[in-house]
């Protein structure tokens, strides 16, 4: 794995842990700020796509579908910005689904680490399972307040970030074994 990819994986883990802590400490502020950011970036993406469509419609076919997509993005962005409260209370459910999916993937990938000889593969499995359990709890209780969901999400995001960091250790160990194996083969050839 490239060093830059490892750096991004490490940064993702660290930022996920920081985001989880922020969700726990300031749930309402986090939800409203996130809702506003999503609305703003959706609006910005729609405007950019619309400008791109106008500039390229002469030589790119199907510009009508791109224009429709851009207009829909602009509308969604405006709705998100105008209905910040609705979006803010929807975000916990969206994040719970995301954490649930990421945790399932992390759990499945933990067995690849086991097959590669990474001893603490079980830690990745446990963190993945913990994320799955918290995700299911969040989905089973949609009437729970946003603050409680933010707490569950914050813990789950922290666990997912920790899983990324442990996975990075597994990748480093696996690469070390591959390099050692390559050196052994080269030594045998000489």
Structural class: mainly alpha
Q: What is the averaged pLDDT score?
A: 82
Number of domains: 1
Rg on CA atoms, Å: 22 Å
What assembly state would you assign to the polypeptide chains in this entry?
single chain
User: Total strand count, please?
Assistant: 0
Our measurement of the CA-to-CA distance between the termini, rounded to an integer number of angstroms, reads: 27 Å
- Beta content comes to under 5%
Structure explained in plain terms:
89% of the residues lie in helices and 0% in strands. The model has no long low-confidence stretch (mean pLDDT 82). It has helices at 3-25, 27-56, 63-82, 84-115, 121-140, 146-189. The chain has one domain. The relative contact order is 0.16. It has 6 helices and no strands. The protein has 190 residues and is an all-alpha fold.
